[in-house]
TrEMBL record:
Native species: Arthrobacter terricola
Protein name: DUF3445 domain-containing protein
Upper taxonomic lineage: Bacteria, Bacillati, Actinomycetota, Actinomycetes, Micrococcales
Length: 336
């Protein structure tokens, strides 16, 4: 029997991080799929909503941008732009800044007269005039500048030879993959290690869909994994810092507060001028203790973890603790 809650009463007390969380499961099981839908479509959940806009700005804005700054200082390779992708980076700026201003007019403003632009972001006390296409008119490299304004990671795929190539991006919050390793690879090569997707033709179907996108079209999908602690940077480069936690969290009495469901909202956009495909990857973290505050989420996620095939659990890196997490979710216990 499905468990429900009084949505109106819960909305008044649940924090924003729960009310705006993009809970990804509609069923009690999960399999890989393209799960692509049009962007900018508001999604109602049991306790709130998400997805009405392209760029989500939330309570973690300053924290996550400061985290990105620290990561880039330690490892500048997290941002790479091959020379032929410079135009696509400016195309990204010309696409995202007006969208952010339109979605957040109380805190942001974008004005353009020819190539002369003015960008205002009151969250950063920023009032910047620059010339579209002129790298020297920005206080830093164009891709780097864009990464100071949005919480999303950015991946740019060039289209040539009837496929897509990862030729630029800024990725500080990778979930168990390496942006630096993948730069220069094709779309199919990047997704080669994912179990089941080749046999079920998911990658080839996704590639065909993306190649058919028209300039300006925007779609999105969700993906998920789990993370120990509120840590967005779980790249393979930093595995020694977070990998050992996977082996100990199942026995940790504080597991419900430390173990997080990580959901990525991935926007897929065919840039209007360059024709490059832009992937925006926005990552959200919610601990099991918060998920348990929504009974239907607790039940669904518990069953998803229990039923998930071993090869998929292994690839997601959750196989050592998924039973403990599932058992806790389905037990109905409260977090300590």
């Amino acid at each position: 029997m499905s468990i429900t809650i009084d949505k109106d009463s819960e909305l008044a007390v649940l924090p924003e991080r729960i009310r705006k969380f993009p809970f990804p499961f509609a069923n009690d099981f999960y399999r890989y799929s393209a799960n692509v839908e049009p962007a900018n479509k508001d999604v109602a959940t049991e306790v709130g909503n998400w997805g009405a806009g392209l760029i989500d700005i939330d309570e973690f804005y300053h924290e996550e941008l400061a985290d990105r700054e620290a990561i880039l200082k330690r490892d500048p390779s997290r941002m790479q732009v091959l020379p032929h992708m410079r135009t696509a980076v400016w195309d990204s700026i010309a696409t995202l800044l007006p969208s952010m201003a339109a979605e957040n007019p109380e805190i942001m403003s974008f004005q353009r007269d020819g190539d002369t632009c003015r960008w205002q972001n009151s969250l950063q006390s920023l009032d910047l005039e620059f010339t579209m296409g002129d790298d020297d008119s920005l206080p830093m490299e164009p891709m780097r500048f864009l990464g100071t304004q949005i919480q999303d990671d950015i991946v740019l795929l060039d289209v040539r030879e009837n496929t897509m190539w990862l030729d630029a991006g800024l990725v500080t919050f990778a979930a168990d993959w390496s942006f630096g390793f993948d730069v220069g690879m094709t779309f199919a090569e990047i997704h080669g290690p994912v179990p089941r997707v080749k046999e079920e033709n998911i990658v080839s179907r996704a590639e065909k869909f993306l190649l058919r996108l028209q300039p300006g079209e925007q779609f999105r999908r969700t993906n998920w994994t789990m993370t120990v602690g509120r840590r967005l940077d779980t790249s393979t480069e930093t595995y020694p810092e977070w990998g050992p936690d996977r082996g100990t969290i199942a026995d940790d009495p504080d597991m419900p507060n430390k173990l997080h469901l990580r959901v990525e909202v991935q926007h897929l956009i065919r840039l209007p001028h360059s024709g490059v495909l832009m992937f925006l990857i926005r990552s959200y973290l919610l601990p099991l203790s918060d998920i348990a505050k929504v009974p239907s989420w607790r039940e669904k996620f518990g069953h998803v973890l229990a039923e998930l095939p071993d090869d998929m659990a292994e690839y997601k890196g959750i196989i050592r603790y998924r039973k403990a997490a599932s058992d806790w979710l389905l037990s109905g216990k409260s977090a300590a």
